[in-house]
Design a protein that fits this description.
Length: 60
Amino acid sequence: MKYLGQNRYGELLDLLYEGATTLLTHNQQHSGTDLSVLFIEVLEKSQQGVSEEILMKLGR
């Protein structure tokens, strides 16, 4: 994950979220879940505070 090594957490989180939602929308539950788990891992590594936007994404 090039973005992770460059500390580009915001961009990486956006990519993972969009990828996960697209896959889940197209009934690709396993792959969508994999990206969702990566989203959470990157969120933890980024150590950014919990925002309303992140809560909305997690609750979707």
